[in-house]
Amino acid sequence: MTQAGKLYVVATPIGNLDDITQRALATLQQVDLIAAEDTRNAMRLLTHFSIKQKCMAYHDHNENSQSGKLIDLLSNGQNIALISDAGTPLINDPGYHLVKQCREKGIQVVPIPGACAVITALCAAGVATDQFYFGGFVPPKKQARQALFQKLTEQTFTSVFYESTHRIIASLKDLQISMGDEQNIVIGRELTKTFETFFAGTVTQTLDWIQADHNQQKGEFVLIIEGVEQSQEIDQKSMDLLIKLKAYMPLKAAAGIVSETYGVNKKALYQAGIELD
Ligand code: SAM
């Protein structure tokens, strides 16, 4: 009986080609076939590293049909590497069906770890990373986006999302509506590439920054939303003052005065003010 081959799930760079690992290069050299999200992109990567290999397309639209073919090849002893356009396969990229079927059929799946945008952003953002929620892409529709951000107003740990150049401003505006002006966020843009940028600030500061410079709206984005602080007890006298001031001035200013007067967290006051409406 033929011994089954192995499926190698190989991470590739998210921008800087030097981020490929030795193990990824050796695996891509040695396998019998590479299943790639986009064969032209794969060929560019392989050519850069002088690797000559056969590639087969494996993307969102043919995942089901191609999985069967790849399983047959693996069962017949072929070793296959799975790569996506950038970063780690299966992380908002194709591969789930194939890996699941391999596991069900007892075919060995070997991870070859490397770049991944969510981890790359988190490790340099300066936010709490002991616990985090990764939500994949922000929903494209406004209503779903606002509902999602609304849920995060009670999230105590960091949340991370992927976002595209087309929707980054719309998403930030919805974030501002649902979570308030004072929500702290970090944008990781074009990570590992020439124009890598991190911007940390409130959602209002971030919108001002990104809208002022068209160049900052281009490229690929990771959006990090800081969790709300756990102890946000607002005592009655602070709440009473907030209610009084709010009748005469914008909530942001009212929250600022109460915060200075009684030393209560400004963001918590702002959030409490939104909930009063
Ligand atoms: N599999 C990839 C990974 O491991 O991160 C993610 C693929 S997903 C289809 C593409 C999204 O990831 C982009 O729209 C962007 O939100 C994020 N992304 C990928 N590369 C990035 C980079 N260099 N800088 C910032 N975000 C990036």
Looking at CATH, the homologous superfamily of the largest domain is Tetrapyrrole methylase, N-terminal domain
Structural class comes to alpha/beta
Strand content: 15-25%
Q: Are any ligands bound, and if so which?
A: S-adenosylmethionine
Would you tell me which CATH topology of the largest domain applies?
Cobalt-precorrin-4 Transmethylase, domain 1
Radius of gyration: 23 Å
How is the main sheet built? 5 strands, parallel
Q: Portion of residues in helices?
A: 40-55%
Tally of DSSP β-strands: 10
The backbone outline, from C-alpha atoms, is elongated
Reading off the top of the CATH hierarchy, the class of the largest domain is best stated as Alpha Beta
The CATH architecture of the largest domain is 3-Layer(aba) Sandwich
SSE series = EHEHEHEHEHEHEHEEHEHHH
Characterise the protein shown here.
This protein has 277 residues and is an alpha/beta fold. The protein folds into three domains: 109 residues, Cobalt-precorrin-4 Transmethylase, domain 1 (3-Layer(aba) Sandwich), CATH 3.40.1010; 108 residues, Tetrapyrrole methylase, C-terminal domain (Methyltransferase, Cobalt-precorrin-4 Transmethylase, Domain 2); 41 residues. The chain contains eleven helices and ten strands. The strands form two sheets. Strands 3-2-4-1-5 form a five-stranded parallel sheet, with helices on both faces. A five-stranded mixed sheet has the order 6-7-10-8-9. Strand 8 and strand 9 form a beta hairpin. The longest helix is centred in the N-terminal third of the chain and has 13 residues. It is elongated and about 80 Å long. The chain starts with 6 loop residues before the first strand and ends with a helix. The structure holds S-adenosylmethionine (SAM). S-adenosylmethionine binds next to helix 5, strand 7 and strand 10. S-adenosylmethionine (SAM) binds next to helix 5, strand 7 and strand 10.
